[in-house]
Amino acid sequence: MNWLEQLRADMARNKMADVPADSVIVDVRSPGEFQMGHVQGALLLPLSDLMGGAALPVEDKDTPIVVYCASGGRSSMAQALLAQMGYSRVTNGGSPQEVAAVFNKPLVAG
Questions:
Q1: DSSP conformation class of 27
Q2: Which residues constitute the signal peptide according to the record (predicted)?
Q3: Is 69 tagged catalytic?
Q4: Distance (Å, rounded) from C-alpha 70 to C-alpha 68?
Q5: Is it the case that residue 6 has pLDDT exceeding 80?
Q6: Which of 69, 78, 82, 90 is catalytic?
Q7: Which of 1, 29, 82, 86 has its CA 20 to 30 A from that of 59?
Q8: Full-model pTM
Q9: Domain locations along the chain
Q10: Which residue in 60, 29, 32 sits closest to 45, CA to CA?
Q11: Residues with Cβ < 8 Å from 40, sequence gap 6 or more?
Q12: Can you tell me the distance from the alpha carbon of 84 to that of 98, in angstroms, rounded to the nearest whole number?
């Protein structure tokens, strides 16, 4: 990990210091992006599907959820949509690399 990646990882850890380790991790990128590499254990729910009315497979709306995309833009929109749906503990994790660093999980393809 180079110094810039380390700095980003440290900033992500600080940003998500209060996020529980058992949070549900949701990738809101496209299926193709997900296949190229995602945080191990992440659920795929593309932002376009969420905007089209797809439901998040999490019944308890107080469950901690972390959403991420390529850079944080789409996950910011997903965070707002999920809040409108009544989810009370949604965090924008930013990128897959940031979320992987915070949760100490690998990025996996497929």
A1: E
A2: none
A3: yes
A4: 7
A5: no
A6: 69
A7: 29
A8: 0.88
A9: 3-108
A10: 29
A11: 100, 105, 106, 107, 108
A12: 25
